[in-house]
Amino acid sequence: MTPQEIADRIEIDDLITRYATAVDTKDWDLYRTVFTDDAVIDYTSAGGIRGSLGEVVEWLSHALKLFPMTQHLITNRHVVLDGDTATGRSYYYNPLGRPDDKGGMQLLFFGGYYNDRFRRTADGWRIAERVEETAWVEGSLPGAPPQN
pLDDT for 110-125, tens place per residue? Predict the structure, then answer.
């Protein structure tokens, strides 16, 4: 690997971590720094939407209000560089929690993959397209009957 390829991989790795931090802290300004302005983000496999960055920020900021606790763990990152673009696939494990009526926490767990297209921009690497691929869900959404 060249020094540039190593630097690119580190920057993309940091970008993926920044995504998880932005979602879990519900910092939508930080979330916007993860994606290109023309990004397409697809959360439909998890029951969400597919849309532009603005549309997804609006939807996600409302959807996650139900869950004061979220924790995105993103692992097994496979990135293929191709000049100023790259593709990637990473695993995610995402527990979400909300208070239950007994003083505890009702948990919902998602596991799956993020399939990404990255692009180098004047501001560094960004995600140009993210397609979430949900592999499994444990638990139920608030107000829905249990699935287990």
Answer: 999 999 999 999 999 9
**3-class DSSP state for residue 141?**
coil
Alpha-carbon torsion angle 49, 55, 57, 59, nearest 10: -50
Q: How far apart are CA 15 and CA 12, in angstroms?
A: 5
The rounded distance, in Å, linking the Cα atoms of 41 and 53 is: 7
pTM exceeds 0.90, yes or no: yes
Largest CA distance in the chain: 56
Domains of the chain and CATH, by start? 3-138 (3.10.450.50)
Angle at CA of residue 26, ends 76 and 86, nearest 5°: 35
